């Protein structure tokens, strides 16, 4: 009985849809070319309009101070760079390794072209980099847009090389 009911339903569906399918023919519902189909589909799903403002990539900043491998005396330094075209803010990172894994300071929203770093340790090399950023297009931000440099903080005491005599202490008379 169930099979008979299914066959009746199938025949009824076929009888109702056959005339509609026959009138449309091979080309479908009144569409004769691929271009017409494309226009019809684009009217349903219009292409996304590109925002040129969001696609503007700011220029790479030019680092000015401290110069590459400069010796910084003291516990603070002011990093300086030239204003970059189309930049609205800057992403600044300072680290003790060239891969910027060990960050000492970081700020993603620096509005000025200077950045102060405090609590520098003597006897270390510091690497710093700055990237120009537009807040509405972080999607264009990549590591390659960083301008990078380094500086060092000379140590208070130097370690003598193997075989060299140690320097006498200041309060010990020389023999």
In short:
With 175 residues, this protein is of the alpha+beta class.
What is the strand content?
A: 25-35%
Number of domains: 2
Under the CATH scheme, which class of the largest domain? Answer: Mainly Beta
Ends distance: 120 Å
Main beta sheet: 5 strands, mixed
From the structure above, extract its key features.
alpha+beta; 175 residues; 2 domains; 27% strand; Immunoglobulin-like; five-stranded mixed beta sheet; elongated; disordered C terminus
What secondary-structure arrangement, pairings included, does this model have?
Elements: H1 2-24, H2 34-44, H3 52-55, E1 62-65, E2 70-71, E3 77-82, E4 89-95, E5 103-110, E6 114-117, E7 124-133, E8 147-153
Parallel strand pairs: 2-8
Antiparallel strand pairs: 1-3, 3-6, 4-5, 4-7, 7-8
